[in-house]
Amino acid sequence: MSRELFGNLRLLSSLTIVLPLLIGIWKYYRLSRMQQKLMYLIVLFSITELIANILWYQKLNNLPVYHIYTIIEFLCIIYIYKDALHTLFPQRVFTIIAVVFTAFCIINTFYFQSIFTFNSNATTMLGVLVIFLSISYFYTLLKEIKYTSLERNPMFWGNAGFLIYFSSNLLLFFISNSISTEAAEVNFLVWGLHAIVNIVLVIFFIIAIWVNPNQH
Question: Which of 38, 131, 132, 170 is the most buried (most CB within 10 A)?
Answer without folding.
Answer: 38
